[in-house]
Specification:
six-stranded antiparallel sheet; 33% strand; Jelly Rolls; 196 residues; globular; 2 domains; DNA-binding; alpha+beta; 434 Repressor (Amino-terminal Domain); RmlC-like_jellyroll; Lambda_DNA-bd_dom_sf
Length: 196
């Protein structure tokens, strides 16, 4: 994941015409850390990836995906590198393209004892609880969700997740419109084609 993030981060930053200093200012991530990430070093956290997504105004998949496979897709959760945050473990499973937009599918586990805060990022966030009780705060509104419950909201709004009485297992879907995606002609090519 580090090598893919390194290449995509550099591609996205240059595609937006940003220096490392400007991306550091926008993302509130140190310039040295950004330089390490572009070099394929360090361990990016959920907070780091979401901050970069917000600052660059691109979906997370534009930073983490190598390319979309053709044919049947099988993803083994145990083989996927986990993005860890203060309270959440995310396993990126798949990106589904439709009408120029994208829906990213994640296995999301919320650990008890901490709150996962997000300042917001591009897209629409959808969460479906599979097991446990999940507290979700969006702006000043708080809701509790149980197994089978769903919440969706504009992910630009500040939001947080907390496991209320033990671990929570859920499916997280991040939905992006065609205007929110970078267009990469070839995921391995150094150049970038701008937005539609």
């Amino acid at each position: 994941m580090r090598d893919v993030l390194a290449a995509n981060l550099r591609r996205a930053r240059l595609g937006r015409g940003l220096s490392l200093s400007e991306l550091s200012r926008r993302s509130k991530i140190g310039k040295a850390t950004l330089s390490q990430l572009e070099a394929g070093a360090g361990n990016p956290t959920i907070e780091t990836v979401f901050s970069l997504s917000r600052a660059l105004e691109v979906p997370i998949s534009d930073l983490l995906d190598q390319q979309l496979p053709s044919g049947p897709t099988v993803v083994r959760g145990a083989e996927v590198e986990v993005l860890r945050g203060a309270a959440v473990d995310l396993r990126p499973l798949h990106g589904i393209e439709a009408d120029g937009g994208m829906v990213e599918v994640y296995d999301q586990q919320v650990r008890p004892g901490a709150r996962q805060d997000s300042l917001g990022h591009v897209g629409v966030e959808h969460t479906i609880v599979q097991a446990g009780r999940l507290g979700v705060r969006v702006d000043d509104q708080e809701v509790e969700l149980g197994p089978g419950d769903y919440i969706g909201f504009d992910a630009l709004r500040p939001h947080s997740y907390v496991a209320l009485d033990g671990p929570v297992r859920s499916v997280l879907l991040l939905q992006y419109g065609s205007d929110q995606r970078l267009r990469l002609t070839d995921p391995h090519a150094p150049g970038l084609v701008g937005k539609d």
